[in-house]
Amino acid sequence: MRAGLLRHQITIETVSESQDSSGAIVSAWSTHAVVMAAYEPQGGSESFKEDQEQATQSVKFRIRYLAGVTAKMRIVYDGRHFDILSVADVGGRQKQLHLMCSENV
Predict the structure, then answer these.
(1) How far from the centroid of its chain's Cα atoms is residue 33's Cα?
(2) 39 neighbors 45 (Cβ within 8 angstroms)
(3) What is the domain-level CATH number for residue 36?
(4) Over the chain, what is the mean pLDDT?
(5) What is the helix (H) or strand (E) element at residue 39, kind and residue range?
(6) Which among 25, 55, 56, 96 is least buried, having the fewest CB atoms inside 10 angstroms?
(7) Whole domain around residue 27: which residue ranges?
């Protein structure tokens, strides 16, 4: 992977859940890693759900291999939040990851 393609700094976050004093489950996001990535928009779609129009944008982030990244995490890029849909180890050689993500717009 050419380093010049990795121009965008992203933060990969993981969620942790705990109970507050009243017993309710509280979710909090914390930083797993801050890495450089290639940002590649893949397209978008619109749909109606519960009588409201919802738009989603699909994005692929390409990063150097990073152990522990899962689809339960999210990416923060340019103040926007992207849910990770899939994590692919390209070629199975632990050199590069493709993170397919979606953003609700």
Answers:
(1) 12
(2) no
(3) 2.40.10.270
(4) 89
(5) strand 25-49
(6) 25
(7) 3-104
